[in-house]
Structure formats: C-alpha cells, structure tokens
Amino acid sequence: MNRIIISTFLIINIIYGINPPQNGNFPDGFWEKMRQQDIGQKYGDPGWVKKISNYINDPSRDTQLEFFVPVLLGKYADVSTTYFNASDYDQLLFGENPTGSMKDYYNEISYGNFLVDGTSGGWYESTLTMAQAVSNAKEYVAGIAALADDDFDYAEYDNDGPDNEPNSGDDDGYVDGILVVYSGCGAEWGSGNDNLWPHMSSLDAYEYETNDIGFNGSNIIVSSYAVNPELAGGGDCYTDIIRPMGVYAHEFGHILGLPDLYDRDDSDGNSAGLGEWCLMASGSWMGWAGDRPAHMSAWCKIEMGWIEPAVVANHETNIEIPQVETNPFALKIWEDDFHFSRYFLLENRQPVGFDDDLHGPGILMYHVNENRRYGPDYFSGGSCNDDESDKLVDIEEADGNDDLDEEVNRGDDGDPFPGSTANVTFNDSSYPAASRNDGTETGISVTNISDTDSIMTADILMRPKYGYGIAYDELGISSYGFGNSDESDKWGGVLFTAEDGGYLTEVDFGVRYSDSYWTAYIYDSFNGSSPGTLMDSTTGHSENDDWVTVSVDSVPIGEGQDFFVAVKYHNETYPVCFDKTGIQSNRSYYSTDGGVTYADYISDYGDANIRAKVSSDALVGIEPVAAVPSDIMLFPNYPNPF
Predict the structure, then answer these.
(1) Residues 6+ apart with CB under 8 A from 84
(2) How many domains does the chain fold into?
(3) For residues 445 and 550, what is the distance between their CA atoms, to the nearest angstrom?
(4) What is the pLDDT of residues 306-336, one digit of tens each?
(5) Are residues 429 and 481 in the same domain?
(6) Which of 238, 256, 274 corresponds to the end of one domain?
(7) Domain range holding 474?
(8) Predicted confidence (pLDDT) per residue in 502-558, tens digit
(9) Are residues 142 and 219 part of one domain?
(10) Strand pairing class (634-635; 310-312)
(11) Are 317 and 417 within one domain?
C-alpha cells in the first residue's frame, strides 16, 4: 500500500530555537547535545503559524492579534533560593518595566498590530535537579506545567483561531505557548555555567494533558514552550539583577515561528548572520544584556504581517524611505528573473525607540533567498542562515568589510548606507555588489543614497520580470512526507498549466533528507496516469534537506499548455515532501513503477513541493537600461507564494 504518510522529518539538520551566546561561538558539542533531546524539531506553535499566515493573506486585516501566555517559575529540586517572584516577572514582561517590557517591545515593533500579555505564577519546585533538567529539558518543562495546573486555566491561553477570542471553539486545543523561568542564570552568558541554555521547542512525547476542558470538551494540551533564566549573569549569577527581557522576546519570537538568523552550523565556518541588527540574531543582547533589544529586521516584520513591503515595479528617482521604527515601510526589489524567490529588501534604521542602541543609522540592505527555508507553513525549517555564502537573509555591509560574515563583530556603523565609509552606491560594480550569490550581474542599482535622516532618499534601477513561476504548493514544505517505509526509488510529479508561452528554464523541488540523490524529468504532457514525451532530465545530489533549483535546457511551452514535472527520489523512505495546509490543487501524483504510471494519491493530502519557472519575453515591461521615469509603481507583496 503506497498511500502512507509520515508526520515528522527524519533529518540530520534539525532546527533549533535558541538564543545566541553573549559573545563568541557555541561551545564544543553543544548542537549534538540539543539533537540528543530532539529540541526544536517542531519550531513555532503550529496554531499560531497558521493564524499569522491567514492574517497576512487577508487584504482587509485590521484586527490587533492577541497572544496570552502563562509564565511559570520553575525551581530545581537542588536549588534552595530564588531571588525574584511572579510579580517581578509580570512587571518585566507585561508591566511598567523601567527600560521597557516585552509587551511594550512587541507593541512598538508591530506598530500596534500585536498584543502579548500574560500572568506569572510560582515558584513551582521540580522533582528534577538542575543537572537532570539540563539532560531532559522537556521532562522538566512538562513537570512544571503540571505543578501549575491548579493555578492556571490553560484553556484561556488557547487563542489561535480566527475570531481572536481564547477557547471560543475555533482554536486547536493546545496552549499557544508557555514561558518557563528556570532558577539561576543562563548558560549562554559566558563560560562556567552548567545550567539550561534558553531555547524554544515542543514537548512531543512529554506533552502535558491539563485538567482544563476546552470548548470542544477535550482537555487542553501543553506542548509549545520556551525556557529562560531567572537571573542576569553567567559563570557568576547576579542575584540582585533579574534577567533582562531581550532573551524572552527572542524565544517568544520562536514561538511565533520565526527562525534564528545567525549561523547554527559549525561544519562550514561561522557567521554572525544579521548580528545585532535583528532580534532573531543577536539583537536580543542590545542595551545592557538585552534590556533594550533591537527591532526585528524588516524580513521578520513582513513574516509577521506587520509590514507589507512596497515592491519596486519600475525605475525611480528620489524615492523616500521613512524610518522603519515608526513607519511600517520597506522596499522590495526583485533579484531573480521570475520575481519569485530572491530579492533585496531595504529599510531605514534610526536610533529611535527600542532601536536607540543601534551601532549606526542608515539604509540596511538585505539580500533574501526564500529557497533557504521551507516556506510559510514551516518557515523556520531549512538551512536558513547556516550557509554564510547563501543565506536566507543576508546584510550587504556598506563598508565591504564582511565583518558579519567573518564574525569579526555583530554589527558596526559601517553596515548601513551611507555609514562610516559614506557609501552611496550599490550596483553590479560596487562592493558589496547587487549581483546574485553566484556572481551573475542583475542590473539593479541603488544610488545617490541621501545622508542619514528620519526620511532618506535614493534612486533605484530595478530588474524587469523576464518570466513567471508556477507554484501550487503556496505554503511550501511542511513536516510531512509521502511514500512508504521501503528504501526504494519513488516518484512525485505535478501537472502544470502554462499561463503564457515561453521556455521552461528552471524547476524547484523540495528534498527531505540530507545527502539525497534525485532525477528531475520534464514531459510535454500528461494524460492523468502516464506522462507524454520526455523533453529533458537532470540527475543530481543534495547535501542538505532544502529546496533544490535545477536549470532546464529551455523547453518550449505554449500558452495554456499542460506539462508534467516529475522527481525521482533515489532509494528513500517517504521522500515526497508536500504542502499539507494550503489550498489543494489536485495536481500532484505518485509512482513506484519506474515513473511509468502515476496515481493522484498525494492530492488526497496536499500539493507536492515541485515548482516550475517559465521565461517569457512577453512579460518584460521595461528595458534594464531604460531612462528613469518620474514616478514609481508600488504593489502589494502577494499573491507571490512567499
């Protein structure tokens, strides 16, 4: 029986929601210890990831989303003294904190579109010692959740349904997330500390079924969690200083589904990723040890639905870019021919609000490759920023020193434009360059960048659209795979219909396993069970689980033509990844007989992660060297699948 699905990724490169160290790199053996506990395999609360996705795709959205979180103080069995109480954490996270609370922070960076609030309780004394909790964090968290059950109605913390009311019948029956405060200080603050490292994950086998009954009559379940330390300090805890809230804001960002935007892979060198320019990198440490965390990057704010970027659709002179701290504004300039997965993102950062400790003001230019993550349904999955040569989100450092990539620092006043080097030009000939990561020139330029101010200006030459992408799996790779448990060759395929005539020049598809071998096939037609004439094929190897982009030898495609793209996964179990939550197109097929005949089994569950890109001269609206017109066309960022 071939219609079998598996519900988890069996991969080596597991994703972790972990606060970066205060300084330097992660200690030797750190990532292996995390893998042994399966920390982070489920990243982001599933209900809230879906809620945010629906929020982003609603053009008429005008509702402030509300997230209510219980904060549970959990003391180890071998710790006799704690130094702060529940009311202290209510003030730190949700109250009148002198340097700003987590509630204040998220209200500011979301422009009032997101409210986080909650209640703290405890201390609750675990049956585990500190060493035992470090060895099994999930058991520790589940135990604290159980001890707090009599004090909390967990049903009031399940608010991931569309009506924005907790436990109203449209929620998923799971607490959206809990924050656990563990006694002592965090292991990520210097050396000499054997305590827990702050992280976000899910309880999996340790899921706790509460005593509280949800709207549908079932017991509410606790799964998504984050752990954070009680005290400031590392090797020596500062018993008179509560841990600043930056680490809480970072881990809470993971509960919402955001990935770490620093390098988590030691195998190919390290980079600081976005460094202290983004909460989801090391911006959680800004101010004094994180009491004034930096804003999220524009990319993160777009993912949360707090910014809808203005897409540059023509050349422009003297375009205004207001400061992002008080204006939900960012510019998006497509970099790839299909305006599909790669782009530059510009934001104006100024020392305002929680950004008041920035290294320097100016235009930050991000280079984004969406194929370094799985997609909106599981957008923390994939290599993200682990490969310093091809990141999900990269900063083009204006001074050209590559200090972030080389981990010389986590940000400086030379990173934004014009910056300390007075760089006012970004194009194919500059360094950093506006070229693609493989060195191909794009024709994009951002020039005449103004002096830093609350409103900055620049001239922009964009890259015209030379084709289009077809993606029926609009939410990308999920944590599910289709197939069976036999280690054998299996085929997944998608039937495409061309919108305009042109040439099929690229195919994207997902792979679930590192060290995978595959073959991609292009057919000119499909009759519902058998493909037509083979037009092209390519065999290759992928080192990582991720999206794969394959160049196709310009297969001609007519307007309205059906064509079929299939991928053979060599000797793998459950290899065909698919979008399980998007709108089903009923265009996905599966084969185990050598790709001779296909059945639409996958369509019962979702859309296979196979995408086509068609080059078409008919879509070129302007010449890349055309004269700069007097106005610009700005369009919303959807319905592009990202």
Answers:
(1) 230, 231, 242
(2) 3
(3) 27
(4) 999 999 999 999 999 999 999 999 999 999 9
(5) no
(6) 256
(7) 468-619
(8) 999 999 999 999 899 999 999 999 999 999 999 999 999 998 888 999 999 999 999
(9) yes
(10) antiparallel
(11) yes
